[in-house]
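QA checklist item 7 of 12: single-chain prediction sanity check.
[x] sequence parsed
[x] length recorded as 425
[x] structure emitted
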Amino acid sequence: MDNRNSRETLSEKFSTDYPPVNRKSPIAKRAWLVVALVILIIAAALYFFLQPKAQPASVPTVEVETVETSNVNIYGEYVGRIRAQQFVEIHARVEGYLESMLFKEGSYIEKGQTLFVIDPQLYKAHVNKARAQLNKARAQAQKAERDLARIKPLYAQNAASQLDLDNATAAAETAAAEVVVSQADLTQAELTLGYTRVSSPISGYISERVADIGTLVGPTAGKSLLATVVKSDSVRVDFSMTALDYLRSKDRNVNLGSSDSTRKWNSYVTITLADGSVYPHKGLVDFADPQVDPKTGTFSVRAEMPNPDHSLLPGEFTKVRVLLDVRENAVEIPIKSLVIEKGGAYVFIVRPDSIVERRFIELGPEVGNNIIVERGLAKGEKLVVEGYHKLSHGMKVNPIPAPAEKDTDSGADVKDVIISEDKED
């Protein structure tokens, strides 16, 4: 009993000194709200700073080049054969034994130079005989003239008959005709004697002799060819072109073999020598056959080319390159920028607002690593040359200039295009 009373007394004492705590007071509620708010702020800050940042939409970067124009030479390559400008065979025009040779084989000879001598004795005898016949005819003609001169006054005096006058006149006319015939015989004999000295009709290089000294030569002896003379200060190059090339040249208003004053260029020819070097001189096309060979489908073309150092030998084959056309201010682009599909060929162009446009174009011949564009592009446009595989029409891009490539043409304003027969086929 005493312990119980003691606990109650102690409890009443503490209750009197300290009032009871109210767990749901407004102050406690505000404290908890502040703590919760701080926690929310910290969590929001952590979420804001730690969350991954949204990436902006990616814009592809492409390399572009400015479309340029240049003058482009269009060539065709063919197989040609060198031919001398003049090729003359030296023949014996009279029959006789070849007596001497007055030249060095393979040397240069002048026009009119004596090359061979045929035994002239027989022909000298013919000249002497013809001269004697001429002298005889002249003597008879003089006698006939004197007889006619005597008969005319006698006839006037009726001392000679009409028959005498007619006979004298006929004799004089016959004698005069005999003089003319004898003169012609003498001229013929002298010409024949001159043929015993065989001379060159042109200047040029002579071949080796065909007939040896002492050989019986002549048109009736079965051996008249003595040598050949070639004039090769300038040569001719013969080659054949296809009918397709002819039609293409017509489409461009180019007439091979004829000059055109409206053009700034002519169809010149360059050739490649056997060692692969390019011949330093150029020639001009001066003839084109007006008809096509139905068996081969080609037509013959000829060019004349200077040969001052005689390095071009008649009869040799060579590679011929002919200027077929000149494209002035032609638009050309790199082949690597071209996309070819079943519907055609197209490229990507970057507009000033950095939007790409897919442009279909019409292609022409290739120019090395470039290709000519006939239609579809204009000078100054920005062409995508790298990165076009990731583009689509209307996409925005980041264009950057393409790195400059080394110019293999050494700054030349004119570029060359070679059209070979294999490529055309």
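[x] summary fact logged: The radius of gyration is 54 Å.
[ ] second reviewer sign-off
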